[in-house]
Amino acid sequence: MFGNLDTTPELLKQYEFKTGEKHKYLGDYYSLTVNETPETGVSIAQNRIILNVNDSRSLKHKEFVLDMWYREQARDIFVDALAQAIVKAAPYNLNVPDLKIYRLDSRWGACSPKYKRIILNLELIKTPKECIEYIALHEMLHFTYPNHNLSFYGALGNLMSDWKEREDLLNRKYRLT
User: Fold this and answer.
1) Has this prediction a pTM greater than 0.85?
2) Over 60: is that where the pLDDT of 20 sits?
């Protein structure tokens, strides 16, 4: 399940956005293929991320187009994960929060009960869906349990019995720093 552990966190990698470079998406590595085309966009075919850009020499342009694609994917997948978390946590009468997606340096997510907001780290899109589901549920439970106390972990364990394995996977294979 854990496979080989990465030695360099994604946030610390210096990408050149060249064909053949490996990029993560939903826990797997994909080989990047860069094409210079009139239309910009990103698609996945087999084990490749295909990056179509207007200027294949511009590092900033390639980085921007790929980043926007990651953000689009994250929005769809994170909204679905939060919806699943709300259903799982139905006994706690949780409401749909405002979702923000940011690139965070040292945490996977944050919850602000005062503003009814959850922030999820964009880098989560590079981890397996089960890790995204874990973080979504973890953050949703903070609306009921603001602190990491026994009640919080009891509720988390009742709703997701394998939460510790998911957390360990994030900390070992997909660490931020």
Assistant:
1) yes
2) yes
- Domain for residue 30, yes or no? yes
What is the rounded CA–CA span in Å between residue 101 and residue 13? 20
Segments forming the whole domain that contains residue 26:
10-173
* pLDDT greater than 90 at residue 2: no
Alpha-helical segments (H) within the chain: 59-88, 129-141, 150-159, 163-173
Cβ density class 92-119: b for 16+ within 10 Å, e for less: eebeebebebeebeeebbebeeeeeebb
Report how many domains make up the chain: 1
Distance, CA of 134 to chain centre? 11
Residue at token pair 């997948």? 77
pLDDT tens, residue by residue, 107-125: 999 999 999 999 999 999 9
